[in-house]
Write a structure and sequence with these properties.
By secondary structure, the protein is an alpha/beta fold. It contains 12 helices and 25 strands. It binds shikimate-3-phosphate. The site of shikimate-3-phosphate has 10 residues, from helix 5.
């Protein structure tokens, strides 16, 4: 296959209203719950990108009928909690960690065995973090390197509820356990040490499931069907983040984003950008019944940024925005530091390595001390030839960096990965 590259040149300023695709995390969850609910689910503004389409195909393989109306409205004929069919062969999930980890939770409750596989990146991502609690609940899982990596074969069975303290802050692990908990006898509780995105909890409630959320503990009782629903997916704040940083760092720019998800567990990066001096206004909207998620409009005006420290405790609330915040750090005067970002090492690529290596090539003074990333920003940097390492968020962050450079073209190699989450990004940038 021919490698796709992207070339961008520096710009001075811009003014734009950003059209935004549906949220990736929420689209995955809507499709999954729609498939195991009873009755019809209609999802508007579903993210039509490779990762979410892998989730849809996985359920098609298990007998779920789905159809698209128009560009991004997805209808799912739910088969109920116990209606999935044994898949005819391995379920391929591409690059999508969310598909694999959450699906394992659902497969844990099925009376058949199934194998999940992925691309080379997904096959190297840690799965032990979901395998361990699911085995404690009663599933049997075998993988490459014991139970650590995909391909994984899971034999579901009779599950029992557990009370589980998450050893790493991960919404994917929390969600896998809660989804398995739907099939388990008794109560399943997940206890977090810091709050991660709560889309699964919200979506479960949207499909009629009762949950108890007390502080950092989420509990649910197994069995009892979910009811098919109508879901309107808000715009993806993580995709908007690339353009929010671009506008924030270019004096005189103006950006407007309508109907974007502003769930408090996802907007940590806006708090950080404001601390850096960014001019960002969030105009909340009334939460509608079809959404179950807070939504709003965002207005950004460009001005000079200054450095800040991002504490370890803030990381779960901005995990996917760390690469683009490093680009903001490159533009901000003074020192910006990200503390203990070790989870970046196990994303689609090692994002500490990918961002430090590429931004250094552009002349940015950036380095890491173990899992901390430090930037001495606000100095001119230039275009260069860069590598995406097949990671969508690295590729898109570098494209923004190329736009923010003071001189020279930037060429980013291997950008097909952008289609996993934001197919229209290349046109928009
Ligand atoms: C996601 C959770 C996060 C995030 C990923 C999507 C989700 O992963 O990085 O892009 O939808 O639950 P972790 O749970 O591994 O932190």
């Amino acid at each position: 296959m021919k490698m796709e590259n992207l070339t961008v040149s520096p710009i001075q300023k811009f003014s734009k209203t950003l059209p935004l695709p549906g949220d990736k995390s929420i689209s995955h969850r809507a499709a999954m719950l729609g498939a195991i609910a009873k009755g019809k689910t209609e999802i508007r503004n579903f993210l039509v990108a490779e990762d979410c389409l892998h989730t849809v195909k996985a359920f098609q393989k298990m007998g779920v009928e789905t159809s698209f109306q128009g560009k991004d409205q997805l209808t799912i004929k739910g088969r109920g909690l116990h209606g999935l069919k044994r898949p005819g062969g391995p379920i391929y999930l591409g690059n999508s960690g969310t598909s694999m980890r959450l699906l394992l939770g659902i497969l844990a409750g099925q009376p058949f065995s199934a194998t999940v596989t992925g691309d080379p990146s997904l096959s190297q991502r840690p799965m032990r973090r979901v395998v361990f609690p699911l085995e404690k609940m009663g599933a049997a899982i075998e993988g490459k390197g014991g139970e650590h990596f995909a391909p994984l074969t899971i034999r579901g069975g009779v599950l029992k509820g557990i009370r589980y303290h998450l050893p790493v802050p991960s919404a994917q692990v929390k969600s896998a356990i809660l989804l398995a908990g739907l099939y388990a006898e008794g109560i399943t509780s997940v206890i977090e040490s810091s709050k991660t995105r709560d889309h699964t909890e919200r979506m479960l409630q949207h499909f009629g499931k009762k949950l108890a959320v007390r502080g950092l503990t989420v509990s649910l009782k197994g069995n009892g069907e979910l009811e098919g629903s109508r879901v309107a997916v808000p715009g993806d704040i993580s995709s908007a983040a690339f353009f929010i940083v671009l506008a924030s760092a270019l004096e005189g720019s103006k950006l407007i984003v309508h109907n974007v998800g502003v769930n408090p567990t996802r907007i940590g990066f806006i708090r950080v950008l404001k601390r850096m001096g960014a001019d960002i206004t969030l105009i909340p909207k009334k939460e509608s019944r079809e959404k179950g998620e807070p939504e709003g409009d965002i207005e950004v005006r460009g001005r000079n940024l200054k450095g800040t420290t991002v504490l370890a405790s803030e990381i779960p609330g901005l995990i996917d925005e760390l690469p683009i915040l490093m680009v903001a750090g490159a533009c901000a005067k003074g020192k910006t530091q990200f503390q203990q970002a070790s989870e970046l090492r196990v994303k689609e690529t090692d994002r500490i390595y990918s961002m430090v290596t590429n931004l250094r090539k552009m002349g940015v003074s950036i380095w890491n001390e173990s899992d901390d990333v430090i930037i001495d920003g606000g100095k001119p940097f230039h275009g260069s030839t860069l590598q995406s390492y097949k990671d969508h968020r690295t590729a898109m962050s570098l494209a923004v960096a190329g736009r923010l450079a003071q001189k020279g073209k930037t060429l980013i190699r291997d950008v097909a990965c952008i289609r996993t989450s934001f197919p229209d990004f290349i046109n928009l940038i």
